[in-house]
Inverse folding.
């Protein structure tokens, strides 16, 4: 099934930070929190610094949808499953016992999967750690800060969403092919041809 419609790729919200303050009060164990403006937070301690992206892949099974699951639209959430040693981005939905993922011309189903969840640390609230970026492809690149959701023949694939026959779907965007793939309707895989912007 070939479709022409708007597709989005999930991307990490662009990090915008204030400069580190040397007078920041300690937050236990010499941990200092830099002030943040958007969704990422920077920590500084005596052993170094790091970034909290606020997104994690959480294991689930048999239709379970963890708290904080990233919603594609409606009752559909971003998920991925392991198939032949590669992670396939796909979807889970309320009322279904599987993760559905496109592979070749088939829709693969798995009872064990991972769900993409917002995992904000206690005390760090604010905007989500991601945004859905409209994307029409047209090159062999992904949007800036696009989230890698798995691989296809050892090449990165990105988490994407689109509506297929009026229903939200989550799947994979492969820049090299200029297409996004979404599982829909059991045996068919919806292919979204992309065009230059």
């Amino acid at each position: 099934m070939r479709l022409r419609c708007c597709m989005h790729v999930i991307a990490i919200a662009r990090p915008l930070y204030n400069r580190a303050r040397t007078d920041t009060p300690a937050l236990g164990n010499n941990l200092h929190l830099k002030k943040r403006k958007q969704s990422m937070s920077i920590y500084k301690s005596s052993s170094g610094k790091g970034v909290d992206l606020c997104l994690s892949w959480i294991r689930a099974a048999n239709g379970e949808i963890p708290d904080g699951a990233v919603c594609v639209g409606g009752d559909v959430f971003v998920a991925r499953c392991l198939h032949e040693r590669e992670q396939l981005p796909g979807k889970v939905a309320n009322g279904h016992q599987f993760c559905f993922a496109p592979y070749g011309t088939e829709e693969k189903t798995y009872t064990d999967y991972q769900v993409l969840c917002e995992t904000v640390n206690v005390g760090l609230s604010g905007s989500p750690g991601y945004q859905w970026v409209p994307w029409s492809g047209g090159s062999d690149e992904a949007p800036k800060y696009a989230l890698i959701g798995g691989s296809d023949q050892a090449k990165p694939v990105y988490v994407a969403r689109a509506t297929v026959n009026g229903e939200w779907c989550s799947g994979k965007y492969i820049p090299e092919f200029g297409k996004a793939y979404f599982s829909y309707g059991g045996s068919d895989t919806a292919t979204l041809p992309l065009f230059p912007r």
About this structure: Confidence is low (pLDDT under 50) at residues 15-48. Residues 38 and 80 are 26 Å apart (CA to CA). The chain is about 0% helix and 50% strand. The chain has one domain: 7-13+53-193.
